[in-house]
């Protein structure tokens, strides 16, 4: 593929150059826009991000074509003047969704790592407590028994309290209704 620049016009109000060129691609298929952009970028000494292809016109049976390209001064200027097509919007949305998904996956991985570290820390603390409990095993075994024996008494007391509260509560006064006045 060979790109020959025919004409370059400066357009200062739009912060761009309009480049008219001829592309020869003898013996191969029509080059892609990305290939043409990279070749124009080399010849104009600009980045590929600021180049916009406006068309490649080939004639049937011919191995060459004419094209018009805009080379902007910056990406901001390009975004200011060029419309975004539906295809480009879909590509941008797909890239944005992929980025969000990657961030969510990284966040989940960090949370899982923190949870795992917390569990390991708790397990280490339990392991440290286990030798201490073995030394005072007789005291530790008596404490749960006392706790179990006090639980039913508390439950019985809880059942008796609502009944006593109902007896002690004053009777509710009946609601007063106003009688309609006869005129």
Structural write-up:
There is one protein chain. The chain is α+β, with helices and mostly antiparallel strands and 183 residues long. Among the domains are: 2-82, Alpha-Beta Plaits (2-Layer Sandwich), CATH 3.30.70.3370; 83-127. It is built from 4 helices and 4 strands. It has helices spanning 33-44, 75-81, 86-135, 137-168; strands at residues 2-11, 16-24, 51-58, 64-72. Strands 1-2-4-3 form a 4-stranded antiparallel sheet. Strand 3 (51-58) and strand 4 form a beta hairpin. It is elongated, with a radius of gyration of 41 Å. Residues 143-147 have low confidence and may be disordered.
Poorly predicted parts: 143-147
Based on DSSP secondary structure assignment, what is the total number of beta strands? Answer: 4
**How large is the radius of gyration?**
41 Å
| Average pLDDT over all residues | 78
Question: Could you give the order of the helices and strands?
Answer: EEHEEHHH
| Strand proportion | 15-25%
Query: How helix-rich are the residues, as a percent range?
Result: 55-70%
- Euclidean distance between termini CA atoms: 107 Å
> CATH topology of the domain at 2-82, anyone?
Alpha-Beta Plaits
Structural class: alpha+beta
Number of helices: 4
Q: Which CATH architecture of the domain at 2-82 would you pick?
A: 2-Layer Sandwich
Write down the CATH class of the domain at 2-82: Alpha Beta
- In spatial order, strands of the major sheet run 1-2-4-3
Major sheet description = 4 strands, antiparallel
Shape: elongated
């Amino acid at each position: 593929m060979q790109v020959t620049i025919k004409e370059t016009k400066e357009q200062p109000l739009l912060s761009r150059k309009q480049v008219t060129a001829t592309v020869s691609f003898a013996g191969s298929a029509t080059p892609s826009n990305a290939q043409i952009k990279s070749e124009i970028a080399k010849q104009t000494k600009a980045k590929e991000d600021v180049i916009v292809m406006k068309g490649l016109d080939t004639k049937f049976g011919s191995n060459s074509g004419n094209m018009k390209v805009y080379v902007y001064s910056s990406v901001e200027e390009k975004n200011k003047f060029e419309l975004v097509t539906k295809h480009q919007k879909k590509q941008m949305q797909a890239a944005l969704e992929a980025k969000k998904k990657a961030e969510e996956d990284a966040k989940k991985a960090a949370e899982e790592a923190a949870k795992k570290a917390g569990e390991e820390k708790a397990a280490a603390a339990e392991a440290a407590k286990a030798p201490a409990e073995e030394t005072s095993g007789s005291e530790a075994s008596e404490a749960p028994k006392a706790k179990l024996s006090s639980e039913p008494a508390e439950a019985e007391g809880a059942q008796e309290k609502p009944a006593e509260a109902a007896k002690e509560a004053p009777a509710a006064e009946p609601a007063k209704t106003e009688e309609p006045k006869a005129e």
